[in-house]
Amino acid sequence: MSASASSDHSSRVPVVATLTLGCKLNQAETQQAARELRRHGCLTTDRPAQADAYLINTCTITHVADRKARRLIRLAQRLSPDAPVIVTGCYAERDADGLSALAQVQVVGNERKHDAANAVLSALDGLAPSTSGENGSSGRTRAFIKIQEGCDDVCAFCIVPYVRGRERAVPIDDVVALAQERVEEGVQEVVMTGTQPGAYGRDREDGTSAADLIEALLARTDAPRIRYSSIQPQDITPRLLACWDDSRMCRHFHLALQSGSDDVLSRMRRRYTASEFRDAVTLIRAAVPGASITTDIIAGFPGETDSDHRATVSLMDELRFTDVHVFPYSARPQTSASLLPDDAPPEVKRARAAELRALGSAHRREALYARVGAVESVLFETADSGLSDTYLPVQITDAGGLTNQIRGVSVVSAEETTLVGELLG
User: Which of 142, 203, 418, 422 is the most buried (most CB within 10 A)?
Assistant: First the structure.
């Protein structure tokens, strides 16, 4: 959807482009802002297009994320030079002054993120609708639900605690109500998101835990699928994994490894050893057969030796993740790692990252081919393709018109990045 400039403001509905960079938590917050805008009579699009206003939710986890945010802001300014641009998210929190200096840009910090939709409506001025009422729908098959934000761990490399603050859990009743509301709107899968989803409730004095939240979601919502994937290895417990006895829980876990070297993990201030990470993976695979396990790894952290790198390669080869996101180390301001000697030359970081990515790609192909002959539960996001509960892309060849349906698919082959199957029943 796009909008072109018009001098007759009263004759049309304003269009707002709501654009997201970064994590699922950002996606959850952008989705909520877009819902608020539609409730106030706006139309929204989540793609760069001509619009009457832009809401850009940014990330600052690496310098590359910063660059992507600046590029997206410039694109919005080129598409609609007179349209206001509201920038929020972690990059806006870290460098509000720098972003505010850009033409047509207004910054909304994380502590005022709930004001983002209001900032857009104010910026629209006379074009903003005078009456409220839902204008269109999101058309989404999956909804992202924010269950907490902030982090108390303060890992050496991570700027997130500085831009997101301390851990704050959303009360269980509020999460359940929001999830059920999304289900009643038609979504088939609710995705629990946060800075530290696995540590949910750690800030609360009543002992609330992630297991309590999942049990409540299973008991009190009609969600056909619930995805709760981003969990730290130290938060994996038998009680938590018992929740996956319910088939509505998606069999996908994202555990960030970061390094296979205990020395590097210690300097990173991670709260586990390589052996403890291995134990968490073993627990998951025993409790949730067929689960996909994905991970993040940093290449070239300060002080990382060739031996440290080989330890990461070895652990990857042992655990064989379904997918791996590899990041060459990027110093972030205000983090303790930025004070360490960054002694790995850029070409060494690039070489190590390339080796890890190649190994991860080989393991992903292996995981895809291992699914041939299996039956996958697929939520179709288009007429003939979607995501399995194990977070694998699936394409079917024998039917269509299945958008927003969950169907069983028999996997008949695997391509480089996708499963190919036939619809059951």
Answer: 142
Q: Which two tokens stand for residue 233?
A: 């290895």
Nearest to 395 by CA among 404, 260, 410, 203: 410
pLDDT in tens, 218-258: 999 999 999 999 999 999 999 999 999 999 999 999 999 99
Q: Pairing relation of β-strands 168-169 and 189-193? A: unpaired
Our CA angle for 314, 151, 203, nearest 5°, is: 120
User: For residue 339, how many other CB atoms are within 10 A of its CB?
Assistant: 10
Q: Taking the CA atoms of the chain, what radius of gyration do you get in angstroms?
A: 22
Q: What is the pTM (predicted TM-score) of this model?
A: 0.86
Q: Is 354 left (phi over 0), alpha (psi -120 to 50) or beta?
A: alpha
Residue indicated by tokens 């330890």: 311
Q: With 90 as the cut, is the pLDDT of residue 12 above it? A: no
Q: Which CA distances in Å does 351 have to 210, 283, 305, 347, 356?
A: 38, 33, 13, 6, 9
Terminal CA-to-CA distance of the chain, rounded, Å? 36
Contact call for residues 332 and 155 (beta carbons, < 8 A) = no
Q: What is the mean pLDDT of residues 369-388?
A: 95
Query: Would you call 72 exposed, middle or buried from its count of C-beta atoms within 10 A (0-12, 13-18, 19+)?
Result: buried
Q: Which two tokens stand for residue 315?
A: 């652990």
Q: Give me 294's structure tokens.
A: 């994905």
104, 85 contact by CB (below 8 A)? yes
Nearest to 325 by CA among 54, 97, 65: 65
Amino acid residing at 328: P
**Closest residue by Cα to residue 413 from 376, 362, 381, 358:** 376
Q: How far apart are CA 374 and CA 367, in angstroms?
A: 12
- Least Cα distance to 21 among 81, 71, 68, 84 occurs for 68
Strand-pair category, 148-149 with 168-169: antiparallel
Q: Look up residue 114 and give its DSSP letter.
A: G
Distance CA 258, CA 238 (A): 24
